[in-house]
Amino acid sequence: MSEPKPLSLHVPEPAVRPGGSPDFSNVKIPRAGAVPRPDVDVDPEAIRELAFSIIRVLNRNGEAVGPWAGLLSDEELIEGMRHMMTLRTFDARMLIAQRQGKTSFYMQHLGEEAISCAFRKALAPGDMNFPTYRQAGLLIAGGYSMVDMMCQVYSNSRDPVKGRQLPVMYSSKEHGFFTISGNLATQFVQAVGWAMASAICNDTKIAAAWIGDGSTAESDFHAALVFASTYKAPVVLNIVNNQWAISTFQGIARGGSGTFAARGLGFGIPSLRVDGNDYLAVHAVAKWAIERARRNLGPTLIEYVTYRAGAHSTSDDPSAYRPKTESDAWPLGDPIIRLKNHLTVKGVWSEERHKQAEAEILDTVITAQKEAESYGTLHAGGKPSARDMFEGVYAEMPPHLRRQRQQAGV
Amino acid sequence: MARMTMIEAIRDAMDVMMARDEKVVVFGEDVGYFGGVFRCTAGLQQKYGKTRCFDTPINESGIVGTAIGMATYGLRPCVEIQFADYMYPAYDQIVSEAARLRYRSNGEFTCPLVIRMPTGGGIFGGQTHSQSPEALFTHVAGLKTVVPSNPYDAKGLLIAAIEDPDPVIFLEPKRLYNGPFDGHHDRPVTPWSKHELADVPSGHFVLPLGKASIVRAGSAVTVLTYGTMVYVAQAAAAETGIDAEIIDLRTLIPLDLDTIAASVRKTGRCVVVHEATLTSGFGAELATLVQETCFFHLEAPITRVTGWDTPYPHAQEWDYFPGPARVGRALVETVEA
Questions:
Q1: In A349-363, which positions are buried (b, 16+ CB within 10 angstroms) versus exposed (e)?
Q2: For residue B75, what is the nearest residue in chain A, using CA coordinates?
Q3: Which of A359, B171, B253, B336 is 20 to 30 Å apart from A346, CA to CA?
Q4: Chain A interface, mutation test: which of B105, B113, B288, most A Cβ atoms within 10 Å?
Q5: Where are the beta strands (DSSP E) in A83-206?
Q6: pLDDT under 50: residue ranges of chain A
Q7: ipTM of the shown complex
Q8: What is this structure's pTM?
């Protein structure tokens, strides 16, 4: 043994920074159809390798192949296509609205549309999602009113949460969409509790927890896995690995762990990794995990491998920390284009139909936007009452808040 | 009616509510099979089963976070943090989530949740078994904060807290679990069996949150206090002969300002007493409210007798704990001012 040298601190760095050529050679992409589909009551120990591979259905030729294929009809896939296109259009319009000063803030889903849209289609009525701020596809695919979503973004007189929350922090109990919090990861463990409650009450409903790659570093990620594992809670634990947490590449949160899915293995939780830009794969894996939960077989952890193609938010400029062309180089492509190719190969979709759908959807979104704006935008037109500011802190307003409302003169 | 310790009264409150409402669930560290390190949940698992009363992993954020999820599902969790000193890992869940769910979702999601925490010093608990963090809760919009001082109140207030539609922080002065304590650590402790406030009605009864109790009527000075210090203030009044009106606040938020203001307007003087550290403690809020509402009736500066602005020490327990001598001096000085 040689004399020990002074220690040095390891700080992970992404492969490329602005000015460099995008490089995803380190992302190992298995062939579509290559990963087996185990029975839902499989022993977690027997499927450890699923936490290190990527479940994929759509191949390079746009064909659906392998054991995870064949769950959705053409009509369902076309519906899924329209959901993703609607979410992308919705995002584009709201992004412009923010730039026009109609609201203070917005966050897009660009490139991640398949995950929330396809997952939503695998749920049953009454199930509850505990989403982050980047799963609005759960609402779009769940049939929530786009006008209400926009009214929330505009904080106008029809805002369902009365102007109290930042834009995109939606809430809809009826649509199985838990109220979004700005505090990261808190909802991950709440979802486990909700699922435990369903089990305590011998109900048949399950919960879906959502978190991003960066937030898995939060303590509540760990808390959620411990509790889900201990009580075999009927919950699907979803990690959306879009490679970036604002400016921080996923290696900072992941550290020496091979994958985020691998985090589940230490808790004895079956853990799968899936192509997040493959609508069919997302849906198939979601369905598998939801069935496991519903059959009281316990939690499942799913890592969706995707790429955050847009800026983190309207307050962010990604060109300051990653190559501008990186999203074009992303090896799993674009979820909408991939499903489009698949439907075209099947002969149920075409360039013309796609263009027509785009036009229809744009028209629908613009109509919704006009209606939403008739109720006001952040700085113009109708807005929530200042009295609303004091309501809802408690079920019943305590004396000190009544005094303050009086002082505010509202 | 039965004579109970505070521990028994707290357990009885949970027992009553678990029998009455199947939505009530009780959990925390060592709460299930073992019945809690302070015995507050003894027998509940045996009586109601493992899905109604159970042990958890040692993770306070997990305890409160899962309880929030359960509350939004429709259960009424009554969870335990083993010591208030260990609530900090759950603070994000309490402040950012439990307190704000109703507000941020415009009432779509609500959080009928009780978080019980043994609090306070006077037991040689050192830095992490003695803290009184109530000001960290009273500062948070959306929380209610309760501190009972006797078995009767503990049961009635805990039942009210469990039935309350909003999250309630229920701080239990562990120094009072087995008997009242007036700060005279050199004298034998009287058990609750010798105390009239240990007569607790059997079955369901409620003490409304937000109502203070005048534990000693007086005319010379108003003492605003809660928890263990209620007994310290009573001892100080008796030993100094000052005719103090001692108010046990019982609930810090919502606060019974009417009872406070009526008393101070009558006495013209006010001393605030709590174990927690001075700076930015709940006493600062009380003093300000009294100043705002009773300024023209005040005949002396409002005085605070509290723990020092230091972490809670071990060996110096009785130099730290605001005992009857310190409180007594403040009463005399305020009356003579």
A1: beeeebeebeeebee
A2: A197
A3: A359
A4: B105
A5: 128-130
A6: none
A7: 0.97
A8: 0.98
